[in-house]
Give the backbone structure.
Amino acid sequence: MNKQTSVLAYLSAKNCSNQWAFFLQALGKELNEAMPAQDVRVLMRQIGLRAGAEMPLSDCNTVKDIQAAANRYWSEFNWGWVELTEQSSSLELRHFCAPLLQAFGAQAQSWSPAFLEGVYQQWLSSLGAGQALQVRQQSELDPEHSFIDFRLSL
Amino acid sequence: MNKQTSVLAYLSAKNCSNQWAFFLQALGKELNEAMPAQDVRVLMRQIGLRAGAEMPLSDCNTVKDIQAAANRYWSEFNWGWVELTEQSSSLELRHFCAPLLQAFGAQAQSWSPAFLEGVYQQWLSSLGAGQALQVRQQSELDPEHSFIDFRLSL
Amino acid sequence: MNKQTSVLAYLSAKNCSNQWAFFLQALGKELNEAMPAQDVRVLMRQIGLRAGAEMPLSDCNTVKDIQAAANRYWSEFNWGWVELTEQSSSLELRHFCAPLLQAFGAQAQSWSPAFLEGVYQQWLSSLGAGQALQVRQQSELDPEHSFIDFRLSL
Amino acid sequence: MNKQTSVLAYLSAKNCSNQWAFFLQALGKELNEAMPAQDVRVLMRQIGLRAGAEMPLSDCNTVKDIQAAANRYWSEFNWGWVELTEQSSSLELRHFCAPLLQAFGAQAQSWSPAFLEGVYQQWLSSLGAGQALQVRQQSELDPEHSFIDFRLSL
């Protein structure tokens, strides 16, 4: 590893609370063996929907408001931050520095981001996004990237 | 609440990492609705068995050694501490200050301690406890108590 | 120690960030040797005045508002909480669960609470308390107590 | 800021405990105004000497042993890590990810690294470095760098 890489690796590892990392890693391994990845993905999305419902976004009139309200929660919980960009037929969400890889490990990369998918789905639906609009993960969670892309679209 | 009670409530709440409490509360609610408490209990015990296997106890010749080795992990992870007492036909384990109630909520008290049951089962089996010896929870996890009792016996 | 006492001792100790406890203990020892306790006390009060100025209290019309605004900072920083009570000729402030004893040690109890004295002085002056009104510590910081009393009066 | 830079800035900021950052920033400002930078530097070095004495390094026969023993403390306290390199007439120490800049601010860069200078001085003297050998800071603490260089030499 070069210097920059080891600094990022160190800071990313320490950024995940060691009170729960040992528990979450064991949880991830157990879920990986107990059910197909697709089912764990559905479970994580469900958990995200519930977590989103416990973190109401209020007084959001613009995309910028939504981003600010979301980031108040993410900053409080030390879950990184999100950047929202409006496109003609979609809303793009780029989430930086989520502690998912440190918590659940590389083995969980096919399902752990579904938690954030659920949170964003819940938030955007509660703000009036039609039922036909779905949040879907667009990029991998891997050690090379410090962000994950999601998209709200038909 | 009297003063002592509110101090304990404050310190106990802050003692659970807020990076994961919001996630674990949503996880607990989802599991509560998705399956019977007995199945969640089995899942938590499985997770505990896995976590215990990742935290090997080495060089333990006495009950006191086991207690010290266990508490090195619990202190590092801020999971409280355990006190072990040998009885004629059992080993008693009293675990103080686990962050389970803060993490999973009162709704999860019937199953969340099974995680510790699994960890202790794995540790004691790996140190030579016969297959017939089982770790079982002996007391409730509730806000009145800051400890949970477990017992290794036939 | 009985059970309750060891639980409180454990939670209080863990409640002070171990990233800085080793630094602050050494700082406290150095200050204790380098200057008289009264001078360290003045230094701590100065630091508190500065810290208070960096944490403005806004929109406070009542004592209850002040308490709520103060506790938003204390909760964010995990510095316990304060309870304010208006008396005929004074304002009483009782601060619970400050991490001062864990950080600076028992040797510093004659001066470490002056930091909070400074913060409260700054806050109450900025909200309009006359220059003649001073915040003064009223009770000891010791392991038997989980709070410190301050008073704003002539 | 580009993406990499903002990720590093975020992780570095969150890596300093927010329980003490507000206190340490006020402490730094007060010291900056109360005495010349050179005197604060001496104070910080003294604090480092004391902190080092509280963290004994044992069983170190090689430079690699020293590095490992030092990093057990730094990892436990989340103070980054150090890399030691032996040269013909010096020992080079490169300390990564110390939370000094986040704690004391850019205004303190002329004196805050003296704390680490003191710790390393104490450690290396206790391991037998002659009194003539001094640890001295060799590089700046600035946002562009995630490490500080020290050297033990005549």
